[in-house]
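Everyone, carefully examine this protein record:
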Amino acid sequence: MSRLSPFTRRIGTLLGIAILGMGLLASPSTLGASDDLYIEITKKGLGKEVVITQGAREWFMLIEVTPENSVVLRQEKEHGRYLVDESETHDRPMTTGEVDAAITDYVNSVKARATKK
């Protein structure tokens, strides 16, 4: 039976932490908000997607970025019925900062409009 040196154990621990961190980075980020809002933001290629739910209400925004353009899709549902279903196309790719700002603005807008029923 061979014993592992302290250096080998440290390397193994660091690798384990690094792998765990990579797994957390790859998973969708989830933010809990007051008034039972559940917010999930997921990176999608160069863009992002956000899904916000509150009971039977759901808000969705997808920003898809390609080298040629950007497409922004917004949907809002209540009890499975679409209240909003719109998209817009931009003739250039959005920057990471623009994508983040658009997602943040959308989340803040939904928080401001969402009322607890």
